[in-house]
Amino acid sequence: MARLTSLLTSALAVFGANAASSVLDLIPSNFDDVVLKSGKPALVEFFAPWCGHCKTLAPVYEELAAGFEFAKDKVVIGKVDADDHKELGRRFGVQGFPTLKWFDGKSDTPEDYKGGRDLDSLTAFIREKTALKPKTKKAAPSQVEMLNDSTFKKLIGGDKDVLVAFTAPWCGHCKTLAPIWETLATDFASEPSVLIAKVDAEAPNAKATAQDQGVSSYPTIKYFPKGSSEAMPYNGGRSEADFVTFLNEKAGTHRAVGGGLDATAGTIAALDSVVSKFTGGAGLAEVAEEATKAAASLKDKYAEYYVKVFGKVKDNEGYVEKELKRLTGLLKKGGLAPEKVDDLISRSNILRKFMSDQGKSEL
Ligand SMILES: *[C@@H]1O[C@H](CO)[C@@H](O)[C@H](O)[C@H]1NC(C)=O
């Protein structure tokens, strides 16, 4: 076993770039130990790096292996670069790529896999052979709102600012955009008034909308401010940061790339100016009263928070520093609901306004 472990470790070292993969890389030095003598059955793909069908299979195979990863002591899902290791391919009569073979873990005579190269067929095969049920990690649900003709009419012009990407299934730039769009939607998931949406311009139930909108190239991105069905075309860059900046500007949000909030979130200019009088040396009682008045007209929970901080400072001079430290600690600890994180960042931003000028430049 020690030898096997060291072989596997060296295999992993060789294929270090694939360390996150659930598919085991098989090479001449580990093949016999892992596939023929381990007593564990193995599905082995013989592939060549230049082969198109192999590239198509790769993500499916990866998903298959991830599903059976929990049972890796019972079944191996592996692959052989048979271009690099021609002798291994030759030994098992591999003539085309990809070739999939099932080894029972005891004999060196594999069985050809003749099923489909889709995930369902491959999974069914392993299930039948091993009686193991795959465990699929449920992907986090998408925060992108797929709109069809009826939901588009309902949501656009409503109480949300909506950024819509019109896409087509065959469009390469849309595929590039897709993961960025998912990330963007996650960044804005706890922003109740912003919606990141998508219209599949070729879906039968959404086609008419794309036509109405005059969409003729993909992806086309449009912004619909709340209350308006008049689109604003989006022609900016297509990075997460580009979209976040655009939305912050248009929708008045304070999102940061990655889903957090920027340093202005929660802060209110009118109250900041009251706070700066205080940090500039004005009397506490006087500014506290001014803040209370300003907050009363704003009816905003963070405006109330300014008032609360003034109250605390009156009783406890070191309050701001201590409280900021406490909130920073909570944020560092992590594991909080996104709304809670937003709230703590907003309050921290306000507290920083109360620090003396010297403190400000430090933070
Ligand atoms: C449009 O989407 C909504 C929500 O996903 C769904 O309930 C509705 O059935 C869809 N309408 C059509 C025509 O597909």
TrEMBL record:
Known EC number: 5.3.4.1
Keywords, ordered alphabetically: Disulfide bond, Isomerase, Redox-active center, Repeat, Signal
GO BP terms, alphabetized: protein folding
Gene3D superfamilies on file: Endoplasmic reticulum resident protein 29, C-terminal domain (1.20.1150.12), Glutaredoxin (3.40.30.10)
Catalytic activity: Catalyzes the rearrangement of -S-S- bonds in proteins
Thioredoxin domain: residues covered: 6-131, 133-252
Pfam families in the record: ERp29 (PF07749), Thioredoxin (PF00085)
An annotated GO cellular component: endoplasmic reticulum
Signal peptide, first to last residue: 1-19
InterPro entries associated with the record: ERp29_C, ERp29_C_sf, PDI, PDI_thioredoxin-like_dom, Thioredoxin-like_sf, Thioredoxin_CS, Thioredoxin_domain
GO molecular function annotation: protein disulfide isomerase activity
Membership in a protein family: Belongs to the protein disulfide isomerase family.
Protein's name according to its UniProt entry: protein disulfide-isomerase
Organism: Cryomyces minteri
